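quick one, 276 residues, struct below
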Amino acid sequence: MKVPYKYLTETEYQPLQMVIFAAMEYQLKKSLGQHFLINESICKKIAAALQELPLSHLLEVGPGGGALTKYLLQIPNIDLKAVEIDTEKVAYLEKTYPNLKNNIIHTDMLEMDAPFTTHFTVIGNFPYNISSQILFKILEWKTQVPFVIGMFQKEVAQRLAAKPNSKAYGILSVLIQAFYKVEYLFDVEPTAFKPPPKVMSGVIQLTKNEHVVPMHSEKYFFLLVKTAFNQRRKMLRNAVKNLFEATVLQDEIFSKRAEQLGVDDFAMLTFKMKLN
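---
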């Protein structure tokens, strides 16, 4: 009787894992936070969600073994590029998907410039260990990125979609929601990956807001939000006291905590900050 891999011990599973990846001509690199998507129905579901959007230029982040890439290549009339940091995966992708060969960017996504001069959509099964950094990178590109569809650790995906007065609501919630509408699409079980992560995953869609709430500047907005949530248990008056004059801090809104303020509240407060 064959035993499903999910019932194997970690010691028994590791040799099996290496056989699997050797046969696939690449191996898992834990240092890069790699969990390869293998569930075909999930890949098709993500590709289907993508095709609901107006597409012309597309960047896939971390294609890995190309589980999702093969479906992206089937979408007509798009300019697809993929950014991959792992040399072994780049070689595998070039061999397996010859049409993609000249469109693979072999670099660290966090260090690269925007891959297109026009608008482009970002998609990916984002490495969990750098998912927040990827989101901050997307914020740098926000004038060019109207849509994002990404797979995240479920906790991070829920944080992005969280509303005020919830434990999940934090820095990423405010900064992303200031510029994007967040839609939680669906859950993904650990068994959809090899090796299976220890947590659930979630797929979200970001859609650029048509109108961004007025703020003094993005620099002030980012500074205020980060400062407020760095001491989220304190009243705002104490957490951000260095950013405002003492008279301004007497306003009733400063008696609240950061998690009680919405995007509009933070944006409004930027006009009252000390000017440097």
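The first helix runs from residue 10 to 23.
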